[in-house]
């Protein structure tokens, strides 16, 4: 008999920048029994999931499916499949995840060019367009919502601004999808990837992706079917994609009518990803964005009502996360630990230049809710008071209530 106890997670309210507390419907879907990889039930759910995510990404792209792995797997799949050694990549960097795109591009052997904005700011669409005109990249890779800074890069108008430039646009929408507007086709985005653990209310471990016909043509030009499953007509084309697991040409064959065997689809993650999309679409995309806007505004007003200062250009903040400056003389980690141990509430720390300077507080997915916002603000007040911070008594929940009262 094993001496390890059964797994009983402590009750938590996850109010950081993700992961967040999963939606109960998603957990329920993920507890369902497995079926075989090519069972008609399973392939039916795969097709179903493709259609659901077309709606979530607001696209008509046939090639819309899941990459197994966390959001980073989706990012790597996109970049390694699009970029060949020596290709030019342009990355506008305004936070940690822009640096990640640059680093992955370098690992792909691309010639990487960056433009940078200080953390807490975003780019004008014109700045991006003039860098594209100067660098003439094959791929422009952008983050929409960078959780490290909480900023949301405006993308509307990009398609028009880039007209005449032969560039493939990749976008990491991991942190923003479902809680902020994203219109893949209308904004001319060729490849968009995401994750479940933010506004979609699921666990990390599945990366929805969508690819425009142009992007599909590009990766199909590098199609190399594995030797053991190759058939007549499967002639190798172009430079082989450097990763087998993240080869989008092979994943297209796997998710397509031929169901050409690749990895064993992560069944339980597919159940979860499918339910995340169903939950979102049942609510309605616009309604979900509006809910994130409302509860994000209540949290922002609440922390300001406590007398705290927020970080970054608030006109371009994502709806679902706010960066709050740690008051002078307060130990940020001790406050987070106090909230977690005494009240079961998790808020986030931060990275790089913001490490030790700000907490990141999320209101996303299942936790973009009035009770979650008010409870977090009440607890933050108590713990800050214990830490000796000068804060406005009742100012947090009071300001949030005012937002809810309209
Ligand atoms: C914008 C963005 N991109 C990528 C990632 C990486 O996601 P994952 O940890 O699921 O690989 C994150 C995670 O926080 C993120 O916020």
From TrEMBL:
GO terms for cellular component: peroxisome. InterPro entries: Aminotrans_V_dom, PyrdxlP-dep_Trfase, PyrdxlP-dep_Trfase_major, PyrdxlP-dep_Trfase_small, SP_NH2Trfase/AEP_transaminase. Its cofactor is pyridoxal 5'-phosphate. Keywords: Aminotransferase, Pyridoxal phosphate, Transferase. Signal peptide: none annotated. Residues 42-348 form the Aminotransferase class V domain. SUPFAM superfamilies: PLP-dependent transferases. GO terms for biological process: glycine biosynthetic process, by transamination of glyoxylate. It holds the Pfam family Aminotran_5. One of its GO terms (molecular function) is L-serine-pyruvate transaminase activity. The keyword Oxidoreductase does not apply. PANTHER family: ALANINE--GLYOXYLATE AMINOTRANSFERASE, AMINOTRANSFERASE CLASS V. Belongs to the class-V pyridoxal-phosphate-dependent aminotransferase family. This is Unannotated protein. It comes from freshwater metagenome.
